[in-house]
Amino acid sequence: MKKQMVVVAGFSIALLLTGCGGGTDDPGPGGQSMSKAALGAMLYKDTNLSEPAGQSCETCHSLDLLAAGSGVSARGFADLNSTFDAPVSPGAVTGVFGDRNAPTAAYAMFAPDFQYDTTTDPANPRYIGGQFLDGRAVDLVEQAKGPFLNPKEMNMADEAAVVAKVRDAAYANMFKQVFGASSLDSGNEATAYNQIAEAIAAFESTAMFAPFSSKFDAVQAGKATFTDAEQRGFDLFKTTGAGKCAECHKLEKSGGSSGVLFTDFSYWNIGVPQNPNNPAGTTATGFTDIGLAANPNLVASAPASGERGKFKVPTLRNVELTAPYMHNGALATLEQVVNFYNERDPKNCYGSAVPFVDCWPNPEVTDNLDVTFSGDLLLSAQDEADLVAFMKTLTDGYFTP
Ligand code: HEC
Ligand code: HEC
Questions:
Q1: How confident is the model over 258-317, as pLDDT tens digits?
Q2: Spatial contact of 65 and 72, defined as CB atoms under 8 Å apart
C-alpha cells in the first residue's frame, strides 16, 4: 500500500486512471479514498480557479519536487518566491498581498481539529489544533474553502463561480465519478463546493505530504547516524537541553502520525518582531497581527485577551527549505531564528534597523510573552550552530523509509 501512495504523489497517470475506476479505494495515512485524492491533486494544481486566472494552491504551497519521483517539494510545500524583503505571497490580483508568510502544507493533516483542550492537562487548559496560524479553520476541509474566495489570494467571486470553473475543467468527469453524476449540476453548488474542499483535503492527506524521509527519521530507524554537530544540536533541542526547543516543538508522536511532528499544535507568543517589509504595514501604520486572539471560535472562558500574540507552533520538518520564518517572515535564516531564541531579551534594542541579528526589536505583541522557555538561553555561538545543523536533518528525501 505504501508504494501505491508514493505513486499518487508522483501523479502517475496509471494511478489516476485506477483512481477513476473507483473500485479499489486504498486509504492513505488520513484514511481518505485514493480517487478523491487524485481529484484533489487536479484541483490543487488548477491555476484556472482564481480571478484573474493564474494562481493555484500550488503557487503558494509548491509541489516542485527536489528530484524527479522523490515526492519531496523543493520548497517544503511553502511559497517558492517569498523572502524577508517580500515575506508574504502576492494574490491573484496584481498589487494585492496577504499579511502572512505562507506556511508549509505538509504534515498539516495531523493537526487535531481546533479546540479548547481541557482534558489533556486539566490544570493548564489551552487551545490546540486547527488550520491557519491562528487556527480559524477547524480542519483541512474548512481550510481549503478559504483561499478561493479570499480577495487577497485567489479572489473568486463566490462558491458558484468556483464550481462553474470546475464544471468546465478537463477533470470534470473525474469529479462526477467521485461524487456522483449530478454533483456539478446547477442547484448543487453548495454541496459541490464542499466536495471540492474534501477532495483537496484528501490530497493533502496523502503520503506525499508526510514522507517522514529525513535524516532524523533515518537515525530514529537505526539507518543513519548524526554527525557530532547534529547530535549536539539534538541534545540541546530536547526539553532537557539548554535550547528547550522540544517544550513546544515536541518530540513525541501525535495525531496518529508515524513520525515525530515537532509540534503539539499548541499556541504561544514567542515575541517575534514585526517585519517592516510586510505590505500590511506595522503597528505604527495601523497593522498589528494579534494571532490567535483574532480567531472567531474562541470560548467564553478563555477570551481573546489571553491569546493576543500567540501563533500555532509550526512543524520544523523541511524548515531548511521554507525561509523566511515566522508568521510574518521576519527572520530570514535559521541562524537568525536560533539567535533570536537565545538573545531576544538580553539583546533587546527597540528601533534597531534590519536585518535583526544580535539586537532584537520589541515583540509585535508584548502580551502573553513566553519567558520560561525562550528569550534568554545562554547558548554559545557553537551551540547556536549545532542547533541549526540539527534542524537541517529534518529535510525529507534523505532515505526511503
Ligand atoms: C496567495 C498565496 C496562497 C494561496 C493561493 C493558498 N495559500 Fe494556503 N496559505 C497561505 C498563507 C499566507 C497561509 C497562512 C494564513 C494564515 O494563517 O492566516 C496559508 C495556510 C494554509 C494552510 C494551513 C497550514 C497550517 O499549518 O495551518 C493550508 C493547509 C493551506 N494553506 C493550503 C492551501 C490550499 C489547499 C490552497 C488552495 C485552495 C491554498 N492554501 C492557497 C498562502 C496561500
Ligand atoms: C515556547 C514555545 C516555543 C519554544 C520553546 C520554541 N519554539 Fe520555535 N516556534 C514556536 C512558535 C509559536 C513559532 C511560530 C511563531 C510565529 O509564527 O510568530 C515557532 C517558530 C519556529 C521556527 C520557524 C518555523 C517556520 O516555518 O517559520 C523555527 C525554525 C523554530 N521555531 C525553531 C525553534 C528552535 C530551534 C527552538 C529552540 C531553540 C524553538 N523553536 C523553541 C514556539 C516555540
A1: 899 999 999 999 999 999 889 999 998 999 999 999 999 999 999 999 999 999 999 999
A2: yes
Specify the residue with its C-alpha closest to ligand 2, atom 15: 326
Three cell numbers at 252? 513525541
Cell numbers placing 150: 479570499
386 with 344: CB under 8 angstroms? Answer: no
And the C-alpha cell for 235? 541534545
Between CA 338 and CA 341 the distance in angstroms is 5
Q: Burial level of 41, CB count in 10 A (0-12/13-18/19+)?
A: buried
User: How many whole angstroms separate alpha carbon 164 and alpha carbon 170?
Assistant: 12
Pocket-forming residues, ligand 1, beta carbon under 6 Å: 44, 55, 57, 59-61, 89, 91, 98, 100, 102-103, 105, 108, 131-134, 140, 143-144, 147-148, 153-154, 200
> Grid coordinates 513566553 are at which residue?
370
Q: What number does the ligand 2 atom closest to the CA of 322 have? A: 26
* Residues 377 and 299: beta-carbon distance below 8 Å: no
